[in-house]
């Protein structure tokens, strides 16, 4: 099962009134550093601050009026939570959000600002899923999974679709990987709309379940992930894993130091705010996990929801 080309095109049309067609930026300094052309798809400028608005909006606006009467529900550590709360508010329905206790403060505030109804839980996948079952049992809300949902995958695919339409002759597209919704969608768009584009994912070494699953060919769940990239702590799903196995060329891992260095480089050189998860693909380039010299490489900057009171690098005034 996977979203076909028509599903991605339909998703793009469906969400167009509600999301931004985000810009693609370049940085001559970063290009010189690595000897290639890098094109950054700025989903940090997206509604609710992340690519997640694409999938959430696509899913919510595919539901019938009957289905949405009791609202929607999900579990999420942050960006999907905010995106679903915003999409639900646009349809005038309730969004019930299960969030781990260690979720980012700024992401909790975002969910609340969009009218989401938060239920807290322990920071484990089992706790998230069990708490969500309880919420759905009480409310009758429709579950919108953060990534293991064909509607979500089709929506996330629209980011790479836009990049391919705007940037000719890409050799590579890179995306971070957590649950795999963005990576699955990116790989499908590369296949449907591109020409011989290689798709490379990057993942924190402290949360490397996707890397281990990909290299072994067997699903390995995330257990006790430890990374500053809070959006990448989840396991792949039953839908995203097979799509990734069939359509992604490689997955590489990066250090926490590399993530922080890449994040700072983007802040300092491009003058834009990105969260740690967004910096993971550039970290792979910095750490020589792949050679982009002479190539045209697209990177999806997944989001910009970072707590300015808790930056990973020191700042001076």
UniProtKB/TrEMBL annotation:
Keywords of the record: Lyase, Pyridoxal phosphate
Domain Tryptophan synthase beta chain-like PALP: 16-303
GO biological process, one term: D-serine biosynthetic process
Gene Ontology MF, one: magnesium ion binding
Cofactor: pyridoxal 5'-phosphate
The keyword Lyase appears for this protein: yes
TM spans (from-to): none
Superkingdom: Bacteria
Family note: Belongs to the serine/threonine dehydratase family.
Protein name in UniProt: Threonine dehydratase
